[in-house]
Amino acid sequence: MSEDDERQQSPPSDLEFVSNKARNCNATGSGSGHPEFQSAYPDQVLENVLENVLHFLTSKRDRNAASLVCKSWYRVEALTRSELFIGNCYAVSPARATARFTRVRALQLKGKPRFADFNLMPPDWGAHFNPWALAMAKAYPWLEKVHLKRMTVTDDDLATLAELLLGFKELVLVCCDGFGTSGLAIFVNKCRQLKVLDLIESEVSDDETDWISCFPEGESQLESLIFDCVECHINFEALERLVANSPSLKKLRLNRYVSIGQLYRLMIRAPQLTHLGTGSFSPSEIAGQGDQEPDYVNAFAACKSLVCLSGFREIIPDYLPAIYPVCANLTSLNFSYANITAEQLKPIISKCHKLQVFWVLDSICDEGLQAVAATCKELRELRVFPVDPREDGDGPVSEVGLQAISEGCRKLQSILYFCQRMTNAAVIAMSKNCPDLVVFRLCIMGRHRADPVTGEPMDDGFGAIVMNCKKLTRLAVSGLLTDKAFDYIGQHGKLVRTLSVAFAGDSDMGLKYVLEGCPQLQKLEIRDSPFGDAALRSGLHHYYNMRFLWMSSCRLTPNGCQEIARAMPRLVVEVIRSADEEEMDDAVEILYMYRSLEGPRTDLPKFVTIL
Amino acid sequence: MVSKFGLANAPSSSNCTIYLGRLTMEVNYENGLNLKATELRLGLPGSDEPEGQTTPRPNKRTSSEISSSGLTDDGNDDHQASAPPAKAQVVGWPPIRSYRKNCIQAKKNEVEGGTGRYVKVSVDGAAYLRKIDLHVYGSYPELLEALEKMFKLTIGAYSEREGYNGSEYAPTYEDKDGDWMLVGDVPWEMFISSCKRLRIMKGSEARGLGCV
Q1: Under DSSP, is residue B112 helix (H, G, I), strand (E, B) or coil?
Q2: Model's pTM, two decimal places?
Q3: Residues of chain A with C-beta less than 8 angstroms from the C-beta of B13
Q4: What backbone torsions phi and psi does residue A395 show, to the nearest 5 degrees?
Q5: Short-list A328, A356, A332, CA closest to A274
Q6: Do the beta carbons of residue A301 and residue A327 sit within 8 Å?
Q7: Nearest-angstrom CA–CA distance, A190 and A187
Q8: What long-range pairs does B137-146 form, CB within 8 A, spacing at least 24?
Q9: For the region Disordered, what residue ranges are annotated (chain B) (predicted)?
Q10: Per-residue CA distances from A534 to A124, A245, A530, B30 (Å)
Q11: What are phi and psi of B157, to 5 degrees?
Q12: Residue A215 and residue A200: Cα distance in Å, rounded?
């Protein structure tokens, strides 16, 4: 749902015009003259037609546009919107959302800003699912799907969903917290129609409840079960039974408490899997000592539909050859928890000709990336994570790896690359070799680190990216950067929607360039950069078009932020302090501001002030 | 010193000067075209003389001081007031989710024989010790069942009052303080983090431990 919708004022004359035209058509219409047709209210007919047509409109941007045409279209669009997306749970209240959209079947909500993932936000800031859960249960008893990201969900909320929504089919929780295995137990037990339960990178507390056993007995409609982030032991026998009873199961991602021997038993029961998370991929300590090793290669060979492989949480590399049979079909491979070397990677990656998505640890070094570049010509997305996530750690990957990827993987669209050293030359090369880049996120882990070859800032590299990658919508910058880099972004980054800045820039000009130059900017997150109140002012014309602005450890003062709050009544300006520090008069630690139809939220913790 | 959430500490008076100095420079930029900032040069940053370019920003060094090992300041305003330890880690940097950090860290600890996930298990009367990974188990019953299977013995039921009285064997463990404790008294998570080794005692010897 776009908050823009609320700002439109449609003159009533539009509606009359439409009705008149319809009436005229009827009056002068075809000669056969059907009496019942002539007496029907023309607007009603039109609305019915519109309703039928709008059912086919799925894109939320298209729907937002359609709702702005006139009041009639607004009304019909609201009736026919079945998937409701709310990018900031505080931008609109549950009451307002349920009042406007009355026939929603799927809800997608996002809560905390992304920097909360890195402990930059004190805990208990907000984004509680509870008010939404209660509102949904009352307004949409037929609700089937809920998709939440960075929200706090309690066990009670899970119970609400399960008990009050009878046909509930799909729950996806990404980066959520606040619930535990007991909540899961109630949920899976009461949701008899459950098809999808995906817990992705969420924090699940271990209440020592055996939730897997709580799935109902008998045949299940389960299509997807993802629980690789659940850090508790699970009842394997119950899981095995569940998998055996789920003929439609296509996606299964196990947590690291499932051994490779147990994985085998599950795989032979579910050869129809398309997505598999392997769990630990190592044998358990107690069982299996001296026992015959099962034929893992055979188990993988039997999974002829497998296209997406992940897991390997505690990998014993000796077992890697087991996956050879599926490599040729893989489109997605996630090794980002597997500390393997280039030599261990090569025999695998050399078979993965169809690979489009590859997540990996930098333990494979530049050499490993060269091997990827040599084979994976269809690669669309690459993420390279650090084994040693410290500023001054070893740097097994560098500009060499990036250069190789840029030369070998020309269709690359999205990259996230952590490294200790990077040159402008390599970044420029990537900007030229990979023109389809939509997402470019480079994290040089040493703050303010210059180009090690030239000693220059990284301005030119990122400048080349925004200049040459015409489809770029998401950018994260790092390394030594002056205001010039931001000038480039403001001048050329016309499609940029998300920008992430840390330890960069010289002065307010940096932020000004971006706020004045990037008309599509929606999400801007900045930390530890020297941007102050003057820079903040330069974005006044644009803040209503943005989902949010985050600025932490910058040069903002309470007065500066107050000015913005006064100038923009529909903006919620939150000043957040570290929970254990006194209120400070002259500096703003965290500014988080977002457009909202509701004004200040009522669930503020102590350390948040709304200006 | 970096606070828990990596936020800037109160600026000291010396920094206010710099801060005000920064404001003065900003005024200049607003009036002028600021061609200098967008000028393409081959020189190293900070090598130009005019004001505004060599004045060190509180969180930035001139290029000659930048080494590949990174900076020693922690990016907040009062690094001049105190000298933070070299290579201080900043909160939330690099931007890796703690879940991912913990997973990799756990692996490193394992490799380095770190915090005690693997513990030795001795049984009175047995010829040699075994080693188990406590993290494989989610609760006391699971651990005890595994121990029973491993050593082909029975441990029996735990009760808060009586311990394992009446059992043939009683499981005990050495905790971080070096004391021998009865397995089952503390919550599971606390047990895992404090257990250094396990000893399965003969029931007769363990009787003393169970009584309060």
Answers
A1: coil
A2: 0.74
A3: none
A4: -120, 85
A5: A332
A6: no
A7: 5
A8: B137/A233, B138/A206, B138/A208, B138/A232, B138/A233, B138/A234, B138/A257, B138/B188, B139/A208, B139/A233, B139/B188, B140/B183, B140/B184, B140/B188, B140/B191, B142/A233, B143/B183, B144/B171, B144/B183, B146/A286
A9: 42-88
A10: 31, 62, 11, 10
A11: -90, 145
A12: 19
Q: Is A600 on the interface with B (CB under 8 A)?
A: no
Non-local CB neighbours of A508 within 8 Å, separated by 6+ positions: A530, A531, A532, A534, A535, A538, B26, B29
The DSSP bridge partners found for residue A198 are A172, A226
> Phi, psi (5° rounding) for residue A593?
-130, 145
How far is the C-alpha of A442 from the C-alpha of A355, rounded, in Å?
Answer: 22
Whether the Cβ atoms of residue A486 and residue A513 lie closer than 8 Å to each other: yes
Find, in chain A, the residue whose alpha carbon is nearest to that of B54.
A506
pLDDT tens digit sequence for B157-201: 888 877 887 778 889 998 877 788 889 888 887 888 788 889 998
Task: Determine the length of chain B.
Answer: 212
Q: Is B100's CB within 8 Å of A503's CB? A: no
Q: CA B118 to CA A285: how far, in whole Å?
A: 10
**Residue in B5, B131, B146 nearest the CB of A578:** B5
DSSP structure class, residue A322: G
- Which chain A positions have a beta carbon within 8 Å of B148's beta carbon? none
Closest Cβ opposite residue A286 in set B45, B90, B150: B150
* Alpha-carbon gap, residue A166 to A512, rounded angstroms: 51
> For an interface test with A, which of B7, B38, B130 has the most A Cβ atoms less than 10 Å from its Cβ?
B7
CB atoms within 10 A of CB B121: 19
What's the pLDDT tens digit per position in B111-122?
544 444 688 898
DSSP bridge pairs for A235 = none
